[in-house]
Design goal:
The complex is a heterodimer of chains A (493) and B (115). By secondary structure, chain A is mostly helical. In chain A, 77% of the residues lie in helices and 2% in strands. In chain A, helix 5 runs antiparallel to helix 6. The model of chain A has no long low-confidence stretch (mean pLDDT 93). With 115 residues, chain B is mainly α. Chain B has one domain. Chain B has three helices and no strands. The chains are: A mainly alpha (493), B mainly alpha (115). The interface between A and B is large, with 38 and 37 residues.
């Protein structure tokens, strides 16, 4: 029993509530928001070291015995995600100060970001399936506010669709929870993991598992359900887009990974086979999109979809290499996607457009920016020793050890397409004849570039120092592969 | 009783899908309202309808004849959330109508600023 588990959820909530009291005081807003995220980061680091030394931490609210109260559980997997999502939020905040505009800053931008963080960290931490629904609604509510924030015409148009898709998936979520409760009589994840293997009606549980896959698939943007993502993510400003791209789909991916390793393991021959096929189709669909567009935002948005497919393929293999690879790739993808969106954001600020064909020759005037972009692009594609490599290597290895060697081949082949899609940005924007660009104040440029460059440096460190991080990753993978560790920590309070 | 409820839920879902497939934004919003109602009733029904039994186990009440209080707690949470989301959606729709001058989803496709 350790209340430390709750800190990364409660701290941003308190700071967001405080921030709502004085929306017009610009400097106070910035300072308090950054202090809030920094405090969350500190608490996440404390929780990380606690989980690292003492194993899985669980707290059941109201001191009820475990299956009856709402459990909050922090294992290595969830704390790694909490840590990386908080780091991403911190850098996006630094980036949004110069880019988001005073008008937005004064109309509850920072509280919305902190509420989003509350929801994301809560969804990563919760140990109760209905509570997961509640936290997802918290983060969705904040994301509705952010996606329409500023009220430009494309934003209004796209947020209607975003809202509609998420309302439908929430209704399906409630229905899926209802079916699960009627079959098992519990909603605590650890208790579900105990009860589900005892139930003989595997057929109905398989249906429920697929229904949950549909629900989380809407959030994670898996193959047939990703249609809403490219349009909706295109509308908001770049800082918000970076936050969404790095965090929101990852919550859906996390939920699939958690439920499909912890308790929906009664019929892996069907459910995990389905997951593997869908994952591969997701990768292929994402590649088509990433290569088809000449718009830098669109290219990176479709790369989100590709990464979702790669991660889910790893988890569908259910062996040590695949699961560890998925966890590593998930952490890597949160950092690299945020970094790439911020880099592309600087590109669009410099050129005043996001159309690749109107860009060119930037390497002469911004050499450091150009090479930073190239490093991030190589990191995304997984060129060693950058951070995409260890995760992808393990996922491919997992596929070869499992039954889906063809999936690993697809992942290897599509890595080249991913590389092509981002190097295309580099070639068009940095090589060729220089086009006329508006001069940007040096200070303004640096205030955007420095947080982005630090984020890219972090991903390089994650890749080059992979040896340092592997103990934590394999620790996280062990809990996913042995649900008994998770169950014992929650139920034997 | 559960059978009657199931049929009612099915009708709600059916009406919701019909409304959400129309072009008018306000019909779509009503559809999402009906969809959430259907999901909430489903949650209550799947937990088992307790009839007039009390939701607490007191002296003289055996576990077999008490109503499960958990679905009621869940449905309450879900109702509050869907209420908030629906009101947000209505405000968003009104604002979008003011800015864009239409509530027809056919005209809200949005392809002009990218190819």
């Amino acid at each position: 029993m350790s209340n430390l588990v709750l800190f990364p959820v409660v701290i941003p909530l308190i700071f967001a509530a405080i921030l709502m009291l004085f929306p017009k005081k610009l400097h106070m807003q910035r300072a308090v928001a950054i202090a809030g995220v920094a405090a969350t980061l500190a608490s996440a680091f404390m929780l990380f070291s606690k989980v690292n030394s003492d194993g899985v931490q669980a707290v059941t609210l109201g001191s009820w015995p475990a299956p009856f109260g709402i459990s909050m559980v922090s294992d290595m997997f969830s704390v790694l995600l909490v840590l990386s999502s908080t780091i991403v939020t911190l850098f996006v905040l630094f980036y949004s100060i110069p880019t988001i505009g005073v008008k937005r800053e004064q109309s509850f931008y920072y509280p919305a970001v902190l509420f989003l963080m509350t929801g994301v960290n809560g969804a990563f931490t919760t140990g109760d399936i209905f509570n997961l629904f509640v936290f997802i609604e918290v983060l969705l509510m904040a994301s509705y506010a952010l996606i329409v924030h500023g009220g430009e015409k494309p934003q209004l148009r796209e947020s209607i669709k975003y809202l509609l898709v998420n309302i439908i998936s929430s209704a399906l979520f409630v229905s899926a929870v209802a079916y699960l409760y009627s079959v098992t009589g519990t909603l605590n994840m650890a208790d579900l993991a105990v009860k589900i293997p005892q139930i003989e009606a595997v057929g109905i549980l398989t249906v429920i598992a697929v229904l949950f896959l549909v629900v989380f698939g809407f959030k994670a943007a898996i193959f047939p359900l990703y249609f809403w993502l490219p349009g909706s993510y295109f509308a908001p400003p770049m800082a918000i887009l970076a936050l969404f791209g790095a965090l929101l789909t990852k919550v859906g991916v996390y939920a699939i990974m958690r439920t499909y390793t912890l308790f929906f393991t009664m019929n892996t021959g069907f459910t995990h086979e389905l997951l593997a096929i869908i994952a591969i189709l997701t990768i292929l669909a994402g590649c088509v999109g990433a290569l088809a567009y000449f718009d830098v935002k669109k290219i990176i948005i479709y790369n989100i979809i590709i990464a979702v497919g790669v991660i889910l393929f790893g988890i569908s293999q259910m062996n040590a290499a695949g699961v560890e690879g998925s966890i590593f790739y998930l952490v890597h993808d949160m950092l690299i996607k945020a970094a790439l969106f911020l880099l592309v954001g600087i590109l669009t600020v410099i050129f005043g457009t996001s159309d690749l064909r109107k860009m060119g020759g930037l390497i002469k005037s911004y050499p450091v920016f150009g090479w930073t972009f190239l490093v991030a692009a190589f990191g995304l594609a997984g060129i060693p020793p950058l951070s995409g490599f260890p995760g992808k290597l393990l996922i491919v290895q997992g596929g070869f050890e499992g039954t889906h060697f063809w999936g690993s081949l697809v992942i290897l082949a599509t890595s080249l397409l991913v590389l092509l899609s981002v190097v295309r940005i580099f070639i068009y924007a940095f090589w060729g004849e220089p086009v006329k660009i508006a001069t940007i104040d040096r200070k303004h440029y640096l205030s955007m570039f420095v947080p982005t460059a630090i984020l890219v440096a972090l991903t390089v460190f994650l890749g080059a120092g992979a040896e340092l991080f592997m103990p934590f990753i394999s620790d996280a993978g062990e809990v996913l592969l042995n649900p008994s560790l998770y169950i014992d920590a929650v139920l034997k309070e | 009783m559960e059978i009657v409820m199931s049929v009612a839920i099915g009708l709600l879902f059916m009406a919701a899908v019909y409304l959400m497939l129309s072009k008018s934004l306000i019909r779509i919003i009503i559809g999402t309202g009906l969809l959430s109602h259907g999901a909430h009733l489903l949650l209550l029904t799947m937990g088992g309808l307790g009839g007039t039994a009390p939701p607490v186990v007191a002296d003289g009440v055996s576990v077999s004849d008490y109503a499960d209080p958990l679905p009621q707690a869940l449905i309450l949470t879900a109702i509050v959330i869907s209420f908030a989301v629906t009101s947000f959606f209505l405000v968003l729709a009104y604002r979008a109508y003011q800015e864009l001058g239409t509530d027809n989803m056919e005209l809200l496709r949005g392809t002009e600023d990218y190819e």
